[in-house]
Structure formats: structure tokens, C-alpha cells
Write a structure and sequence with these properties.
This protein has nine helices and ten strands. The protein is α/β, with parallel strands linked by helices. Helix 3 crosses helix 4, helix 3 runs parallel beside helix 5 and helix 4 packs across helix 5. It starts with a strand and ends with a helix. The chain binds adenosine-5'-triphosphate. One of its GO terms (molecular function) is L-valine transmembrane transporter activity.
Length: 241
């Protein structure tokens, strides 16, 4: 469904992403992992159209989407969440979720119906009339996902959706993502929590200093000596384990 070939991004003197190639098959949950500054968010930004690649090609459903406007890419069926979730203050949960559907060009009634369906999928329907800024962090994360779902994407890009959640809260999000995937949604997630990666992802790509250093099944990745040396082992040392 998604194919990234030789993706590269230079920021003045810095190469944030360098010749990265990977693909995501329809129906899969895949993860992009790697240390801070490895180039994960920059890769997402290029896929979603927020950044134009310096080199390389991105195709979605066989169509070249490299460098297209974010709105065109969203209309093609790719929707992304942001690391920092900031719902629009002064607007209800439903109105926030409607933003995605309205951006697609739907009329109010259609946008409301799709937003309510999206809120239902993430368990937020009963909060539809609440002020969005009153939501807890886990619910804000769910709202961010609902905003994307209201656009009815085929590929969802999740940027560290679990960050800041307690293990029990992460478990709720994991089961929501599993259910969305079971309903046919393809998911690519950036994730630092390996427990989440292991339990959700069918395939994993590892970035380090902007380069792809490994791809494979989660079990292969955690046993890969290069990944252990450059990322996983280092994290254990940092955590004092
Ligand atoms: N707009 C920008 N201008 C200049 N440098 C940037 C820009 N965006 C990212 N970078 C740099 O590119 C590198 C990759 O950053 P990126 O945010 O993609 O990493 P990441 O893997 O997502 O990290 P994290 O896990 O901390 O979110 C970093 O060195 C970062 O400082």
C-alpha cells in the first residue's frame, strides 16, 4: 500500500533521513522505531506531505505522492496524528472530531455523522458534547485519533500515540488500534515502548542516524545485534537495567 524508496531529507548541513526504503502492506500494523533524533518524525512528515523530500519517492496505492500537498495526501487516504495533542480550545469533542471530516469537504450533517462514528470507535461518543480541553490525556489521544478517523483514512500514521500513558491506559489504546486494524485500517506507528511494538506490529523498521538499519518481524528485531547495539541495548543501559 505504501512504498518509500530512497527517502532523504537534508536540513541545511544535517541529513535527518538518508536513503530510507521500506513498505507497508495493506491490512498490516507496522512500526517505525529508533532513538531520539533518528529521523522518524521527519519520515512521517514527508509521507504526510508536511515536508518535501530532498530525494526519493513515496507511493501510495501505486500512485506517486512525493511532495504533494498535505491536503491532497489526506484526501488520498493517509491521515496522521501528532506527538503533542492539542485539541482546539473552546470547541467540543464532537466539533474537534468534525474538523477532519469538514476538511475533506463534507457538509455539516455528513461531517457530524462521520465524527460521531469516529468518536464511537475510540470510546468517546459519550463525551461528544464536552469541552475538548476538559479531557484527560488518554482521552485527548483518543480524540486525536478520532479526528483522523473522521476522514475515513485507509492508512493511519500514529506518532508516539502511547507517550505519557500509563501501562493500563496504553492497553486500552492497544485494543482500540487492534479493533480498527481488524476493521481493515492499515497502521504505521512511531513507538518507543517496545512492549507496544511487540504486541501490535507485524513488521518493524529501525532508523538510526537517519538510516534504515533493520527491518523484520518484532522478534527478529529484538534479537538483531545491530539493533541491540545501536538502540535497544543502549536504552537498557540508560534505564540502569
Ligand atoms: N525542521 C527542522 N530543521 C532542522 N533540523 C530538523 C528539523 N526537523 C528535524 N530536524 C533534525 O532532524 C533530526 C531527526 O529528527 P526527527 O524529529 O525526525 O527524529 P525522531 O526520530 O522523530 O526523534 P524523536 O524520537 O525525538 O521524536 C534531528 O537531529 C532533528 O534535530
Amino acid at each position: 500500500m505504501l512504498e518509500v524508496q530512497g527517502l532523504t531529507k537534508h536540513f541545511k548541513g544535517l541529513t535527518a533521513v538518508s536513503g530510507v526504503s521500506f513498505s507497508v502492506a495493506e491490512g498490516e500494523i507496522s512500526a517505525l522505531i529508533g532513538p531520539n533524533g533518528a529521523g522518524k518524525t521527519t519520515t512521517f512528515n514527508m509521507i504526510a506531505g508536511a515536508l518535501v523530500p530532498s530525494e526519493g519517492r513515496i507511493s501510495f496505492d501505486g500512485r506517486d505522492i512525493t511532495g504533494l500537498d498535505p491536503e491532497v495526501i489526506a484526501a488520498a487516504g493517509i491521515s496522521r496524528t501528532f506527538q503533542v495533542v492539542r485539541p482546539m480550545v473552546g470547541m467540543t469533542v464532537l466539533e474537534n472530531a468534525m474538523v477532519g471530516a469538514l476538511a475533506k469537504g463534507l457538509d455539516m450533517a455528513e461531517a457530524k455523522a462521520d465524527a460521531l462514528a469516529a468518536l464511537d470507535m475510540v470510546g468517546l461518543a459519550r463525551r461528544a458534547g464536552n469541552e475538548a480541553s476538559s479531557l484527560t490525556l488518554p482521552d485527548r489521544k483518543m480524540l486525536e485519533i478520532a479526528r483522523c478517523l473522521a476522514r475515513k483514512p485507509r492508512l493511519l500514521l500514529l506518532d508516539e500515540a502511547m507517550a505519557g500513558l500509563r501501562p493500563s491506559e496504553a492497553d486500552v489504546l492497544i485494543s482500540v488500534l487492534r479493533e480498527l486494524n481488524a476493521q481493515g485500517l492499515t497502521i504505521l506507528l512511531i513507538e518507543h515502548v517496545m512492549r507496544v511494538v511487540m504486541s501490535l506490529a507485524g513488521r518493524v523498521a529501525v532508523l538510526h542516524h537517519g538510516e534504515l538499519i533493520a527491518t523484520g518481524k518484532p522478534q527478529e528485531i529484538v534479537e538483531n545485534p545491530i539493533v541491540i547495539e545501536s538502540y535497544l541495548g543502549r536504552r537498557k543501559v540508560e534505564a540502569g537495567q
